[in-house]
User: Fold these one by one.
Assistant:
Number 1:
Amino acid sequence: MIKLSHIVKTYNQGTAQEVKALHDISLEINKGEIFGVIGLSGAGKSTLIRIINMLERPTAGTVVVNGQNLTAMSETQLRQARQHIGMIFQSFNLLSSATVRENVAFPLKLSGRMERAVIDKRVDELLEMVELSDKALMYPAQLSGGQKQRVGIARALASNPAVLLCDEATSALDPKTTSSILELLTSLRRKLGLTIVIITHQMEVIKECCDRVAVIDGGVITELGSATEIFIDPKEALTKRLVSAAVRRGLPNLLRHTQVVPEYHEGAKAVLELLFLGPKADAPVIVDVARECDVSISILSGNIDHIQNQPFGIMAVEVGGTRSEIDRAINEFKQRVHKVEVLGYDERKQLSEL
Amino acid sequence: MNASSFLNFDLISRIGGLLFNASLETLYMVFISSLVCIVVGVPLGVVLLITSKGYFWDSPRFYSVLAAVVNALRSIPFIILMVAIIPFTKFIVGTSIGTTAAIVPLTIGTIPFLGRLVETSLRTVPFGLIEAAQSMGATPWQIVRRVLLPEAMPELIQNFTITVIVIIGFSAMAGTIGGGGLGDLAIRYGYMRFRADVMISTVVILIIMVQVVQWIGDYLTRRCDHR
């Protein structure tokens, strides 16, 4: 649906203030997909999304959306093409001088060819879709942030676009409102077959609704994969950092300041991180392994989360026993859960044993 | 005692008539000048904005030339401008004396002033709104008409108000070179013939005019401000 090939964007080219915002980015986004682009501020993600609808022309490379090569188009052709690419913004960008109705009708009036009655009907439909029919005659200043973004969504979808671009669309909203906006986007994707591109710095947004994710840093894509892959097995340092902001990983706080060493010692217990995923997530793994290998297992921390409604659990456990028992237990875990990581060996005695 | 010598009705009605006619002349000058000024000043402000850096007809050379001309015109004191453009005024309206002739320097003197005010008003519209309109496929003209002007309307009306008030002040000055109106009356009767009553009356009328314009401006600003 969207194909970016070898995109380069350089600002102030050839001058002392030359800034390379994007270097050679190639990306393909499928139809009906919710694609997330995550990065820190200044990474180039805002430039990237503006290149998809050519609000910014790339210095080099091609942009193909819905089979049309936007980079080869004149301004007039581009304006036509943009009507099939909706966009919503962090600061909503609604007209303060116009009512909710007039804001949603704005893109429909631009062509100048639609009849008033047709526009009115379409606006009613759109307002109903975002559940704001009762606010039609209010001005944006009278609405909450979440309602403003719903108006933004209705406006962006007015001319039935195939693609919706979301530029930090939830960054100005509280977590609850963010979830409701993301739910709306997910349901719209299903209903309308939209392809959605989400630019964000919030990993929660990716966790809640993205199918695939690109991590962007310093103008290049450093990691690309399904949301689940990125969460479970982040490879780059930045990705790990971003993921840890949304999902607690690694040594539980309880053990942060105690003696956890990387090598096994006589009498030490293994500290393991277990990752559960999908249907296996609710199997009685701990009890099974404890029984099978005759080890003592204590749970240090645990958390079941959802990535796009797929259960995803992280648990830190301590396994006590002989060396061979521990190794066997690790192997048993490996067969039962998605991933096992040995965080270290704990020489600490249980409080009860002291 | 003769009542008419105590309260000279004849004189009062004569002065009243003078004041009335002069007020009408001032209103005529101010109204036409304001109209022309807004009709030319708003597009000037729009052009200044959209040719400046970062806007859609970004053209640094054109902008700097236009801005220099605007600044030059703004720096000429009105009283000098009025005299300096007499040949031009004659060319436009056929005469350099009278109320209609005064309209020419009044508009030329205030258009650059309003142009700058319009430019700064439009600049208060967040750039994101322009971007949003572009993302929906709006043309530059549609952005000006449907985004910039409506969004900046409260500021624009405030600035129109300021401009009309400046024109009222300038129109009194135009009186000194035969432009007619309240300024003319104040000079000829109030100053040259030492008629303090005429002087005070013209000042009071001007105060009322300015006050009324400000009220209308404030009312309209409140009406269209939904932020």
Note: The domain at 30-224 of chain B is CATH 1.10.3720.10 (MetI-like fold).
Number 2:
Amino acid sequence: MLNKPTAPIRERLIESERLMEQTGCYNGITELSLRNDDPLRFETLHTKLRAYCVSAREMARRISASPGVREVGEMVVAIYTPEGDAIALSNGIMVHVHTMSRFIKWMIRNGYEENPGIRDGDIFANNDAFIGTVQVPDVMDVMPIFYDGILVGWAGAVCHELEAGGITPGGDVALAQERFTEGLFVCAEKVGENDELRRDYVIRCERNLRMPIYWVLDEKAKVASCIDMRESVKSLIDEIGVDYWLKVSKEFIEEGRRAQLARTRQLTVPGKYRGHTFYGHVTEGKPGYQPLGDPNWLYNIPIEMEVGLDGKITMDFEGTQPWGYHSMNCTPAGMDGGMFVTLTQHMNFEGLVNDGAWMATELKLPHGTWTNPDNELVATATSWALLLPAYGVFQRLLSRSFVARGFVEEAFVGQVNSPMIEMGGVSQYGTPFGMAHFECAAAGSGALAIKDGLDTAYVGWNPESDMGNIEIWEQNMPMLYIGRSIVPNSGGAGKYRGGCSFESTWLINKTDHLRLVTSEHSSRVFDNAGMCGGYPAPTCQKHRAVRNSNVFELAGQGRPLAHTPGQNPYHSDFEMRFEGEFELVEGPYITAPHKSGDIFSHSYNGGGGYGDVLERDAEKTAWDVENGFLTKEAAEAVFGIVLHEDADGMPLPDFDATARLRKRKRAERLEKAVPVSQWLEKERERVKHADFAPEVRKMYASAMKLSQRFTREFDEFWQVDGKAVFAKDAK
Amino acid sequence: MTHPIVIGIDAGGTMTDTILVDRDGHFKIGKSATTPKNESEGFIASAEDAADAWGCTLEELFSGVNVVLYSGTGMLNTLLSRTGRKLGLITTKGLEDMVLMGRGLQAWADYSYADRLHAVTHQHPDPLVPRRRTHGVTERIDQFGDIVLPLYEHEARAAAKKLIADKVESICIMTVFSHVNPTHEKRIAEICREEIKAAGVEIGVYTSHEVRPVIREQSRLNSVLIEAYATARGRMQLKSIENASKKYGFKYGVQTLLSFGGLTSINHPRLHETMISGPIGGILGAAYVGKLIGNDSLICSDMGGTSFDMGVITRGQTRIENEPLMDRFKLNVPTLHLDTIGAGAGMILKVDPLTKKVSLGPESAGSDPGPICFARGGTEPTIADCDAILGRLNPDYFLGGKVKLQVEKARAAFKEKCADVLGVGVEEAAEGMIDMLEADANNALRRVISGQGIHPSEFTLLSYGGSGPLHLAGCSKGIGFKDIITFQFAAAFSAFGCTTADFMRRHSVSTQIDVSGKPEAAALTSVGEKVSEVWRDLADAAVAEMLADGHAREKITTTPFLMMRYTGQLEDVEVISPLPVVASAQDMQKIIDEFEQVYAKVNHRVSRYGEAGYSITELGLVATADKVKPVLVKRPLGKSDPASAHKGIRQAYIGGRWHAANLYEMDDLQPGHEVIGPAIIEHPATTLVVHPGDQVFVDEWTLLHYRHS
């Protein structure tokens, strides 16, 4: 056998893949013999490996200087087979379990065993998405595990760095249009030997980052956790023997594959499911953008999910748009990551998940699209912008399947983006700094089919979501919170509403140079829908800022300040209370530096709703209004719920008036309704004449250029010649 | 026996344990059901049970003791059942929603691994103060303590008036960075008190900088809210314990246990510091036993029905956890660090018919309905059922025979739900489940040890709790402990531990002292002076408080400590100062060196980064005063044959087959006795299983040493 442990690792990898191809089972393991011999020992060992990962991650979190890692847990660690398949993993940002796997395999395929060599105590790092990560700030470190001179596995760890040294501070660099402006790249590089990071590598980091301490201490934290896992695995091998280890670690993966298939068969109904979403990115007229591509981008993300009779899930992105000169492109590694994190949240959460689950799925990523660019120079700094809506669709498709099978309580309306704010310039200590603010890791979740979504405590990329303490964030940036509050009506409406988001309002303090940049906004189109009649998650908010505000003057006089932009989009609370120069910015915020006395607000996103708004409970709605999750006006206009006030001015439902209003609303719906055939005919006229916004026309034209299937289906459905219709828009 | 001098009582969720100790270290145990509505009833019933065992009356007991020590769960129950006070909150304007938003992590913290990932299960805890009684007041102080926006006093006054009109029972005040500069909180409190006085009502006012002057506003908010919400009734309960004690002739004040391991009077101003005290007793007891046996590196492990708690004492030091969770609220109360995993005899066992995956817990059958073998309505197999099926538990001697175990019932259910699904025999499956539980615990112990940077052979394992000795063999196997010890009083070890505590105060202040990576001598000297000055002030305050409690000055000792990190990090390492004062640059360097050592031990040497410089974020001091403690009696070793404790033979399934195991009565074992496995040593409240070939030796303190073959 070629994949015996002493063979070169590249041969072992090829052999392992060949066996999978041949037998359909991981590494050719057609029978789980160790599991069958002693199922309890098998389970115990797997639980042990998970425990190694969980505690290694906890140790790393203690070391980190980054609030991203320490406060909000942006980290994951895992143990891999020699060929780079994940055996066991910690909690945290699950996205990266398979991206690290790609990184290890990439090194093996590229002859790293010969040069630069893979030896005990070596440390390899990577943040190149085409090798295996999602975006530049996701820096991963792996270390080989040797036992008696044989490579028996890998320990890996990844943290999301708060500063990556790109053209703008932070890591989610919206301004990047090619990879050359994304920041410091470490491309599958040997960065340490003998359990120590190389000094020259640390110096490179120190000299190329705005805030090197985050990156450097996180590197140390990752290395410490890898060593910790490695030593644990070695002492486990002392106990169970190396042959048993090599065999059992692979059986865990095959078992994981089978468990995923079984779980899918149990929870879903086989068949084809289709869904889609859109994402709009407005950059027209913004400073810093090179005229490489379109000023405004509109992406259509159609997805076909097929659940096979054997439980295999296939996701096909045929019909989506090509990559572009923007930062939202994604690599297959990132697409894998999205799949993995979604599966672990909805089907594979019992903690013994591994790469086997990934093997029970398949992604069809059309070459040349944003999901699989045919150019490795593209930027991927804000992959999440498209990745999250895409996997939000996956969540909705899965949920439809859960509901169809009767697992109503598992249904979960898909995730959306939570825009990020990053910053740099001169800190409150008078020193240069740069940071991504990770409070975005606590947005509103989509609704469930049995209750409202979770408010201010969910993001798709990390189910252990959190926003961190104000007092910790303020130690790292020259801005003070004067508001951090729930955004009313930010959850998509429905019988069960989406979780609400929050918004922060800051007073810039003790600096005369603060650059603020934001990313991941879909401000003109919803980036995910609701379910079963629920409304979509609202689009993201615009930014409001006041430069040279009179806040200190007002404060000196004890006059009221604005602590949020308020509820009136035409005349914000900022304009009502403050004097100064007002800014209202849609999409990414990329402007001139701010200074002390300026005010800035940034808000995160809520989730989509589930079910008919007219079925929403009136008492729950009164509670929502009392607590600021919903406005009284929306309760009436959207939900048809009439509230009156008690003696304290608190809302109470008026059941009779509500029943009357809802009756009227239902009647209005019927009045407005037309037969589908009639509506389609009307729309077809628009399609025939390409009567759409330029971005929409370009969106269709570019999809048709790439995909014959999409074109055919479009033509068949609308009974038009799509290519001819959009000929003028096809560049 | 002489008269008891200390009564230690640990009121747990279901049982209230009492331990009576005399000057010579004799002790007796009492047990009674906890009475949550009026804890003093359970307290007296449990004390009476112990007094009976001692052979004295309650009056004789209470009039003769010097110390009554009570650690209860009343305040925790008030919090869990949301039956505390009606609160109002005044906070920094713009941040009022923090009571609803919480920390996002509170929506999943304390969940099992699976549910942490399974997003649809996440939910915020119910807030302790509703948004409608939360008022914002314009003000802002920054991290340096500078006032950036002045306090709008008129808003504070309006808020106070509204809360008084809303008939709140307490007003809490929490503003951002009040621990650095409390001016605004103090002024808001003054305004509230003025308004309360003007309204002629009685409302408590709590400020976050007084309750918990430490960074992280959400944790500080939770601390002040919980103090105001839950401790008022707790204080009454403690008072009723004291009154009950006095009724029977007790002459002094009742003491309670702080979460960081000292005793304090029940009039302690920050009672929420006593809310996580139950398991703390075990660590204190361990430290005490450690001194006795001459080993200062110990792991104590407490296994009950649902959890396996582990505490560590490394070379005499215990680790402090600064951000524990309480009912899913993040607090910043220093608490003796405990690692906990879900592993206990009550854990429900499941085998997924689809994937054949075995899961232990996290649900526990608790005491109601309890395991199937209790025959109180439990239908899900548990570890205790496996113990009964395998003959490890005596069906006729559980809780001294008060509960008759229905072994056949357990066996039938376990066969159907677990063994048959797995496709293996009942005994094999039952032992496999126990092995999994013990392997979990075993693994957790290894992890805890590896975090200490010390070889396992330096550590002694202490095992206690109702199920501790039952699973001791598997939990400790193969780790290579120096020694493994359990106790005749294993089931009341936490109560025993409470009686070994000293009187204590822990004072600290947040600081922002930075030392560069390559400091000049002058800089070190100046930092040293600053540090010494703070320690002096803290010592004065702590000693004054203890003098006021009636302790003699010469009995009070102080130990200064620092919370340090590399500049830029977010987590501190607690460094016990190797020196009482910092008198020179060399002294300060010694402290930095000590930090480097402690840091490398906890976090691995590869993660050191002295180039970044050092930050001292908190300076503190622990003041202690001695208390009379139980002494364990040392008796000469007698003959090794344990025949005098032998009570028969029972079939027990261990290591894949049935054995005729010798049965011993634990209380009848004498110093010098050696028990060779397979054997089972029984006590009404616990059972020690001795695996074939393993040995138990009873030493001169009557401690039971377990030796793996």
Note: The CA atoms of residues 346 and 510 of chain B lie 42 Å apart.
